[in-house]
Amino acid sequence: MIADKKINKLKEIVGGDAVSTAVEDRIAYSYDSTRLEYLPDIIVKAKNAEQISNLFKFANENNIPITPRGSATGLSGGCLAVNGGILLVMVEMNKIFDINTVDLLVDAEAGVITEEIDKKARKFNLFYPPDPGSIKSSTIGGNIAENAGGLRGLKYGVTKDYVNSLEVVLPTGEIAQFGAKTVKGVTGYNLKDLMVGSEGTLGVITRATLNLLPLPQKRASLLALFDKLTDAAQTVVDIVSEGVITSTLEIIDNVTINAIEDYLDLGIDRNVGAMLLIEVDGQEGAVDIEAEIIKKVCNKNNTTSCKLAKSESERDSLWSARRAALSALARVKPSTILEDATIPRSKTVQLIKAINRIAEKYDIRIGTFGHAGDGNLHPTILTDLRIKEEAEKVEKVIEEIFKETVKLGGTLSGEHGIGISKAKYLQMEISPETFGIMKRVKKAFDPNNILNPGKMSFD
To answer: In 32-127, at which residue ranges do the beta strands (DSSP E only) sit?
Structure first.
């Protein structure tokens, strides 16, 4: 625990109302969206970069770890205080300063909820393309730290593709500016991109300038049903091969379909092997042409039904099914483990077959859904971790899924990060030499290992 004298100093830095050692607060902040739990010693809610800078100077002098935290929607344990110490809560830094409609930029603090940026942009006929599943609750700082992806990744990319510049407080207390507000910028090392996806281990992002895009003229949403999951997966590959880059291309298997129906009762056929939710957007004429190409590809791959949404309400109903996938699966068993295996799109069929084979081998239920258009699948293990045998089985299942993923040329994480939950698998993908370079970068930014210790196996 942190001594009273040091707690008083923290209160001087950020104000007494921003500091808490109450047990109930510490417990409330000991969780994220994983099944993990680590109790911090003290909660500190920062309001500006200067406060955070002074916190780091104090922490370095007293060897106290600091763990940054946004809305805690992460799925890798990245915002958990593994070594106790200070949990730095960023949600009160939540101002959107400016929408620049000429340069198509938005300037926002790290604690802004991601959806709020998109909502404000839409008032100017613009939008913020990254679309993580947690968009209604995750913070933009957390999205940047994890390089969050989402449903629109195939056409529009991920968070890193929209970050122009960052204000970052380094673990030594320095306040740095990385990147530029220009379209082009190659002055010095690209430290901005080093911060994006660094999972809060190299610096605390406090403010960001992000790119926006004009809203597309038209969009069309389609629902395609298949008897076989592998036919749906092949359709994903074939759509892109036909030259259609969809804004979203999501796959949902039978296990997940039935969970969604139990949850929302949308009237989806429970007997289908899989469904694809597809959306194209752009200029009006182009959208119509692309929708027809998609229908032809679906028919070629034995779709039992391929329907175009005829209204916005019908479209919203379709996408409510996808948005509810994880929540629906979480109702099936006491424990839900959402994984994040990502492979080249051409290997989608192989990975899905491997996941089904592993599920059968261990007699365990796995619901698979995800962003099939960019190869980012979410095999979701449904189990009860209170049963020792089940917990042991789950570890074997996860390891085998990752082995298959890497064998197919994939990566352990497309958008959730490594954090704690995948740290032990990290060197399954990267070489000892690469890991050594990562450790040296960490040491250069954080010589005393004050910031977010215990993540990515750095300790």
So the answer is: 42-45, 66-69, 86-89, 96-100, 105-109, 126-127
DSSP 390-450: HHHHHHHHHHHHHHHHHHTT-BS-SSS--TTTTGGGHHHHS-HHHHHHHHHHHHHH-TT--
- Residue carrying the six token digits 């993580």: 132
Structure tokens that stand for 338 in this block: 């959402």
Task: Specify the CATH architecture of the domain 218-407.
Answer: 3-Layer(aba) Sandwich (3.40)
Query: Is the Cβ–Cβ distance between 141 and 79 less than 8 Å?
Result: no
Are the CB atoms for 369 and 258 separated by under 8 Å?
A: no
Helices (H), 168-219: 191-195
Task: Pinpoint the residues of the chain covered by CATH 3.30.465.10.
Answer: 96-214
Q: How far is CA 156 from CA 130, 289, 291, in A?
A: 7, 20, 18
User: Coil, strand, or helix at residue 217?
Assistant: coil
Tell me which architecture the domain covering 96-214 has in CATH: 2-Layer Sandwich (3.30)
Q: Which amino acid does the sequence have at 242?
A: E
Reported as a single tens digit per residue, the pLDDT across 326-341 is 899 999 999 999 999 9
| Cα–Cα dist 41/38, whole Å | 10
The Cα diameter of the chain in Å comes to 72
Q: Can you tell me whether residue 205 is helix, strand or coil? A: strand
Domain 4-89 sits in CATH at: 3.30.43.10
Q: Using CA atoms, how far apart are residues 64 and 86, in angstroms rounded to an integer? A: 7
Amino acid present at 382: L
Q: What is the pLDDT of residues 391-427, one digit of tens each?
A: 999 999 999 999 999 999 999 999 999 999 999 999 8
Which value, in Å, is the radius of gyration of the alpha carbons in the chain? 22
Return the structure tokens found at 109. 């603090």
Pinpoint the residues of the chain covered by CATH 3.30.43.10. 4-89
Rounded to two decimals, the pTM is 0.95
pLDDT for position 31: 94
How far apart are the C-alpha atoms of 296 and 244, rounded to whole Å? Answer: 12
Instruction: Indicate the DSSP class of residue 113.
Output: B
Low-confidence ranges of the chain (pLDDT < 50): none
DSSP per-residue letters across 232-264: HHHHHHHHHHTT---SEEEEEEHHHHHHHHHHH
| Rounded distance between C-alpha atoms, residue 98 and residue 114, angstroms | 15
CATH 3.40.462.10 domain extents, the chain: 218-407
Cα 275 to the chain's mean position, in Å? 23
CB atoms inside a 10 Å sphere around CB 14: 20
For residue 198, count other CB atoms closer than 10 A to its CB.
25
Burial of 3 (0-12, 13-18, 19+ CB in 10 A): exposed
Q: Is the Cα torsion angle 298, 299, 300, 302 positive or negative in sign?
A: positive
Tokens representing 6 are 């040091």
